[in-house]
Design a protein that fits this description.
Elements (H helix, E strand, L loop, with lengths): L2 H16 L3 E2 L24 H7 L3 E3 L7 E4 L1
Antiparallel strand pairs: 1-3, 2-3
Length: 72
């Protein structure tokens, strides 16, 4: 299994455990990400969610700010 798919699987499990929408988060790189966000699980919060959406593994909001995602 590649590292990318492991990250994707870990995030999907996290989303399933939450059972609802989870904020993506978008802290500046010099700041600590907010706990409970997708970003808090790694600095990939901008890359993995769209991939998971394309694969049908998650829903992702597409608002100007404060987007969230959840497992499908």
């Amino acid at each position: 299994m590649s590292e990318g798919s492991g990250t994707q699987d870990d995030l999907r499990r996290f989303l399933q455990e939450q059972g609802n929408w989870v904020e993506l988060g978008s802290a500046d790189e010099q700041k600590t990400p907010q706990a409970g966000t997708v970003e808090a699980r790694g600095r990939f919060g901008m890359y993995i969610p769209p991939l998971m959406e394309t694969l049908g593994l998650a829903e992702v909001e597409h608002n100007p700010r404060n987007n969230r995602m959840r497992a499908t």
